[in-house]
Each structure stands twice: as C-alpha cells, then as structure tokens.
Input
Amino acid sequence: MDTITIEAEPRETGKKATKAVRNKNNVPCILYGPETDPVAFQVSINTLNRLIYQRTTPILDIEVDGEHWNCIMKEYDLHPITDRPIHADFQVLNEGRAITLTVPIRYEGTPVGQKEGGDTQYNFREVRVRCLPEDIPSEITVNVEELDVGDSLHFYDLEVDGVAFQVRPEQTLVTVVAPRLEVLPEEEEEEELLEGELEEGELPEGEEGEVPEGEDGEQPEGEEGEGT
Output
C-alpha cells in the first residue's frame, strides 16, 4: 500500500486556540495510540478534504516538528451546514498490534444478469475490518461479472488474507434481481376486458339506437299498437 506524507504544524489546545486554527482555514487534528502520547496538530482544509474524499484508505506518514508517525485517519467531523471539516482523529499504527478501521468496497465488472435486463443492487460501499497494520487493504475489490438474475454475494463469499470483516457473514453485499414488469392500472384493465366482450357492431347498454321497454317487456304508451 502506498504511503502519503503530510507535513503538519503543531497547535495549541483549548477553545480559543482551536478557533484561531479554524480562522486560518486549517483543521485542528490529534493523533494518538496505545504507545503514543496524544499529539495536537493542524492541517489545511484542502489537505483534509483530499483524505476524506479519497476512494481508498491510505497509510499516512504524518510529520510534526521533525517527528514522524505512521497513522490512519480514524474519524472526522464536518460542519452540519457547510460540510467543512472541523476536526479529525488519527490513530498511530504499531507493528504487531491489530487495528479496526473502515475500508471502501469497489465493485468490478458488470453482472451477466444486468446485461440481460436485471437490476443490480449494491448494499455496501464500505466495511469495517480488523487486521494488522501490514495487512491493511486500501480497498476491498469484489468481482460481480458472473452474477446472473437471482444471484447474490455475501461476506462469507469473500476471502481477503489477514482481514476479518466486522459484519455478519450472511449479510448480502450485492444481488441481481429480475426486472420489474409494467402493470396496467386496474381501470385500464377493466376497460380492455369490456371492449373485448362486445361483439362487432354491438352497442353497449344505454347507447343510441336502443328502444327502451316498459315493465314486463310491454311497449310504453304512445308507441305502435295503441288505438287511434
């Protein structure tokens, strides 16, 4: 996995100092680890945005005042209105010590079932994993080319060396379902059935040309047959 180097600046802690950092268009950050004392630092908003919206999970070499730490970005906070990053935590990687982190999932290929009209449904775009630092994947690649209509892939179908998925194995990653058929509304169906029942030349009840009858089939008064 490639390592990204970040040259960061130290910062003071406290509300006033944190506000000053943000006023400079920087983001207050902190790194920590089981064998490392917390280190407060700051990076530019652009630098942090590149990490947040990167499609893979990189290993970071963070440099502060000449010291270096191998880290991953553990968490970050965004402003609820502007989506501007306002804080980030970084966890130091220690050799031989497992770590839990979130890794993106990349689906590769187009399912056979989709080419035949099926609808592909992706249920996960990222997943939490636990592994040693040297086994951290930048992403989980899932090939879906052989999936036909009705097929699915689950987490128990995946094999990634050194990685334990922190989800239930039976959870579905992706599935291909049959295309939905267009169904006519009930009213339209009833109208089609009615038209089909009428013989050619026959008029529906109540149309022009029908001679109304009186009770018991008798002709109403004033019709032919009445005395003059």
About this structure: The first strand starts at residue 3 and ends at 10. The chain has two domains: 3-93, 101-177. The first helix runs from residue 15 to 23. DSSP finds four helices and 13 strands in the chain.
